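Give me the fold.
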Amino acid sequence: MGETGARGRVEVAHEVAHEAVHACEHGARARCLPEPWMCRVFHIDGSLRDIRVLDTSRVEWIAVLERLRVMADETEVEHPYPRLDPVRPAAADLFRAWADEPEDERSGFCFRARFGAVWFFALPCEEEEIEFSVRPEDVLDLAGVAAVLRFLVEVATAARRPALLTGETVRYDPGMATLLSHDPATGLTSHT
């Protein structure tokens, strides 16, 4: 089942395949993600699940949005900025237009990315934390979990920082449980 650390985390090394997440050889063991128990993380309880990257800036946001445009099966952007391309504005231009609005009047923009049958969406409201949400009812089976894992890895890779899957919150609290995470520096996906 992977290596269990002193804090009870299970870590599994893996590579991202185009349609699924598979484990790479780890010593004498090989792992395959996703595992059936991972579906329980997405039980329908009325709240979203958030994928977040902490301590970011506009640079990481732009890198993530640009990578998702390449790696996702489909992306969509909605924005109120008439001077920008209405369908596919550059991520840097979106953030520049957003930052130019008076802080108390920011209307913002919405970015959505689809991996498999699962849609992820972001309504950027601050540069210091990347946050995407996913609806648990969209993650119905192992294919849905594989889509979430693929998204988690892509976001972490683009941001060059760990990406965390947590319960829904307005602002991240270090004491809240991390359901799954991916660290691009080690290539490990973990759960507690």
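Confidence is low (pLDDT under 50) at residues 1-31.
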